[in-house]
Write a sequence for this structure.
């Protein structure tokens, strides 16, 4: 029941991550700015989202989940309402970063860390199921928002989302007031920390590097697919459809990765997902027909959906449970910074070159950095097992 409520909460609150992607062309046209400047609200959202994952993560380690989540839901709703009233790209960017980004953070890293305390045998599936809420949001909201925009404009759409989030998220958060159980060492069903030949700080840093690299690559299609379709003459609706397909496929990938992580381990699952993401990014360069882009977006979603939740599973496998909120928050902050910087950098490269081809190549290069870090992590995990034996 808790997992189901958490999934619904994340699906609703995930509007804060995806609404700005859908309205990007309309905001650019209204405020008369270039593509890089129009990408800054998304970057600000991801910066606020990243900071919130650490701040709210630390708070749930101390006071539990529901109080920080309640404050975050209020901030998210206020952010949408204020953003709908802004008169400049600066005001819109500030509302996205300080309120929407920060408010959305409670439904990602902190929620994942909280749900990880409630499951032992099937922790991988539980974590990836909770993490799927952000992708379900990406599958639902990019379809809903264009229909609202077509009739009333992006400002009305933002105001409506703000009211809806407040009316639905507050009751859902209040249903999660029960405190998370704490594992007792040696208790039935408890999972001991797995051995690895890295200190917690070194492991944290390696995961930060891997997370930043994978999301620098991931951001190119997720942030710019709508604008890319506009440039190719396919329109906003087609791009939004592709984003929804990409993220719906990501839900399948996330759940499947959870089952795989429970069977072969999170590190190996992470390596598989990252390698497949790198390959699928290559497909975007030669295939830019409408039908081809639908297929490639589906392949990309199936490849990368399970990557980010694997970091949270690795933290829970190799680090103390009492530090889960903060540790997961730091790693996911790195992934979000990767999305933020990657989203802006892709727009900047587009402005320099007039094409997204170089931006895709930049993403592939960062994906190789990610794969290098994962291979090092796998080697250190194997050495830890050998040393224990």
């Amino acid at each position: 029941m808790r997992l189901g409520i958490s999934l619904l909460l994340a699906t609703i609150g995930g509007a804060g991550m995806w609404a700005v992607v859908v309205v990007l062309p309309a905001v650019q046209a209204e405020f008369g700015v270039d593509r890089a400047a129009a990408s800054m609200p998304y970057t600000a959202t991801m910066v606020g989202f990243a900071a919130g994952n650490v701040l709210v993560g630390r708070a749930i380690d101390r006071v539990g989940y529901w109080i920080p989540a309640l404050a975050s839901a209020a901030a998210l709703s206020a952010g949408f309402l204020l953003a709908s009233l802004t008169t400049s790209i600066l005001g819109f960017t500030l509302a996205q970063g300080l309120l929407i980004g920060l408010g959305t953070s409670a439904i990602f890293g902190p929620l994942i860390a909280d749900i990880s305390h409630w499951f032992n045998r099937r922790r991988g599936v539980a974590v990836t199921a909770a993490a799927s809420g952000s992708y379900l949001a990406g599958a639902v909201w990019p379809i809903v928002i264009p229909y609202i925009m077509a009739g009333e404009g992006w400002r009305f759409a933002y105001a409506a989302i703000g009211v809806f989030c407040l009316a639905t998220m507050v009751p859902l958060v209040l249903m999660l007031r029960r405190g998370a159980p704490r594992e007792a060492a040696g208790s039935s069903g408890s999972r001991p920390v797995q051995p690895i030949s890295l200190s917690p700080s070194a492991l944290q840093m390696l995961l930060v590097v891997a997370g930043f690299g994978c999301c620098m690559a991931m951001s190119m299609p997720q942030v710019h697919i709508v604008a890319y379709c506009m440039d190719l003459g396919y329109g906003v609706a087609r791009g939004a459809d592709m984003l929804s397909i990409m993220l719906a496929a990501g839900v399948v990938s996330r759940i499947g990765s959870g089952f795989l992580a429970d069977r072969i381990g999170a590190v190996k699952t992470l390596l598989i997902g990252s390698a497949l993401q790198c390959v699928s990014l290559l497909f975007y360069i030669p295939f830019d027909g409408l039908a081809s882009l639908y297929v490639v977006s589906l392949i990309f979603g199936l490849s990368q959906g399970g990557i980010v939740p694997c970091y949270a599973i690795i933290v829970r496998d190799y680090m103390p449970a009492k530090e889960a909120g903060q540790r997961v928050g730091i790693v996911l902050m790195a992934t979000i910074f990767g999305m933020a910087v990657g989203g802006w950098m892709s727009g900047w490269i587009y402005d320099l070159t007039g094409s997204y081809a170089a931006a895709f190549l930049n993403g592939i290069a960062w994906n190789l950095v990610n794969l290098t870090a994962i291979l090092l992590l796998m080697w250190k995990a194997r050495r830890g097992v050998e040393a224990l034996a």
About this structure: Confidence is low (pLDDT under 50) at residues 184-189. The radius of gyration is 20 Å. The longest helix spans residues 200-231.
